[in-house]
Design a protein that fits this description.
It is a single chain. This protein has twelve helices and 15 strands. It is α/β, with parallel strands linked by helices. The protein has three domains: 157 residues, P-loop containing nucleotide triphosphate hydrolases (Rossmann fold), CATH 3.40.50; 176 residues, 3-Layer(aba) Sandwich (Rossmann fold); 88 residues, K homology (KH) domain (GMP Synthetase, Chain A, domain 3), CATH 3.30.300. The strands form three sheets. A six-stranded mixed sheet has the order 2-3-1-4-5-6, sandwiched between helices. The longest helix has 15 residues. The chain starts with a strand and ends with a helix.
Length: 457
């Protein structure tokens, strides 16, 4: 699971600018007016090949005239509680503030790693501004300019050094995250799989707020089942606890092998169901669609085909994911989930022989050559599998950036057919061949001679 880093500080110290620099996005609104950020904003970042999640929070202050002060304080507390590390930003231009002292006193005894940085220090000549901040009794202060990236590398180096490498489970578990929008029957399904009323079930949407783990053993195989809160549309997320629950649901996808995407068949496939499926696709986990409440659907002999086609059309990016109709209430076809999960997991963890990969690639190119790039032929040299979970293939090519997405899709489909990877996501990475010049990039000798003759005229 990705570590989570919370950015805290009083208003207008540059937290959102720092967030945008670390995540290399513009997701956080930046303005000179204090208090612009009031909700937590989440983004993914990578440093030294270590991925982590960054949380931007509202400015921490005790101003009595701020109607949002209590709500922001609660948001900051929630982010700090969930975080694996905390970065405290202070303002080097405005100097030490009583609010800085309050934040430092609050976090001084935190068992989690806490890094303190003084922002708006634009270069070594301004580092004397740190002097008054040492009155806080801190062992180390990072001079930083989030806007100009001064000191940013050193801060991130120290941050990721606190993250321990992820370790495999102590036993061979298949980790399943049960996700979906609110009130589609996720907890009822978990109770049916576990065989006990372990998860609270209610008709009221939003009953589940934490990601809860249950471990079961079936036919000698351990399964870790993670129940999650319903993922709502952004416009529907108003309560602070619900926002916090959505983050936990998304984090559960980071640590699962297969996502069980539960859909209310009685209501049909909605845009939010497709959004939830998109979260699973982005995180590269295996997926199984579960059409729950099938007992409430008016059926005919074409119902399954019609629902499946509707789902495939709406979520084309997960067209490979198996689909199962079931009823968590009656138990209809619930036990078939394990068979589908085993199939997906086996392909999700498959490693394909390099020779076989290259034979598939050669045949694909023979059947359908890639288009020309600026009048030159795109040449694939060789391919190898770099990782599993999901199967990731590195293909060395003379023009990596020129491989059209439609041709990438063609190669993925050929790998599915040739390697038997019909039910798992596949990732392709295109890289230039190192160590020698690309032969395909050299013009032919006859063409060079023709150009010389033309210039001599």
């Amino acid at each position: 699971m990705k570590p989570m880093v919370a950015i805290v500080g009083r208003p207008n110290v540059g937290k959102s600018t720092f967030f945008n620099q670390v995540t290399r996005t513009r997701d956080a609104l930046v303005d000179d007016f204090p208090g612009v950020t009031r909700d937590r904003i989440y983004g993914d970042a990578v440093w030294n090949e270590i991925p982590f999640t960054v949380v931007d929070t509202g400015g921490f202050s005790g101003q009595l005239d701020d109607a949002f002060a209590d709500a922001i304080r609660h948001q900051v507390d929630e982010a700090v509680t969930a975080a694996d590390a905390i970065i405290v930003l202070m303002d080097g231009r405005q100097g030490l503030s009583p609010y800085d002292r309050d934040i430092v006193d609050t976090l001084r005894d935190q068992p989690k790693p806490v890094l303190f940085a003084v922002n708006k220090i634009d270069g070594p000549e301004q580092e004397d501004r740190l002097a008054e901040f040492f009155a806080l009794g801190l062992e180390h202060l990072h001079p930083l300019s989030a806007e100009h990236r001064y000191g940013l590398n050193d801060l991130l180096d120290r941050l990721v050094s606190n993250f321990k490498p992820q370790t495999e489970a102590s036993r061979d578990e298949i980790r399943l995250a049960v996700v979906g929008r609110p009130n589609v029957g996720k907890s009822s399904l978990l109770n049916r799989l576990v065989g006990a009323e372990r998860h609270l079930v209610s008709d009221i949407p939003g009953t589940t707020r934490d990601a809860v783990d249950s471990v079961i053993k079936r036919d000698g195989q351990y399964y870790r089942l993670i129940d999650t809160a319903g993922i709502r549309r952004k416009g529907k997320v108003t309560r602070k606890l619900e926002k916090f629950s959505i983050l936990k649901a998304l984090r559960s996808l980071d640590r699962c092998d297969v996502a069980l995407i539960v859909i209310d068949a009685a209501e049909g496939v909605t845009d939010q169901d497709v959004s939830v499926a998109g979260y699973a696709h982005e995180r590269g986990c295996g997926s199984v669609f579960l059409l729950n409440k099938w007992d409430l659907v008016e059926k005919d002999q074409n119902s399954v085909r019609r629902f499946t086609e509707q789902l495939r059309g709406a979520a084309k990016f997960l067209a490979f994911a198996p689909v199962l109709t079931l009823s968590a209430l009656t138990g209809q076809r619930v036990q078939r989930i394990f068979k589908l999960v085993e199939t997906v997991y086996a392909q999700y963890t498959t490693r394909v022989n390099t020779g076989r990969i290259n034979r598939i690639l050669e045949q694909a190119m023979a059947d359908n050559e890639p288009s020309l790039h600026r009048g030159r032929r795109i040449k694939f040299f060789y391919a190898t599998q770099a990782a599993t979970r999901p199967p990731t293939f590195v293909i060395f090519v003379n023009y990596p950036e020129a491989v059209h997405f439609s041709y990438q899709r063609f190669l993925v489909n050929r790998l599915r057919e040739g390697a038997g990877l019909h039910d798992t996501p596949i990732r392709l990475v295109f890289r230039p061949r190192a160590g020698r010049k690309n032969i395909a990039a050299r013009p032919k000798r006859r063409e060079r001679s023709a150009r010389r003759r033309k210039r001599s005229r």
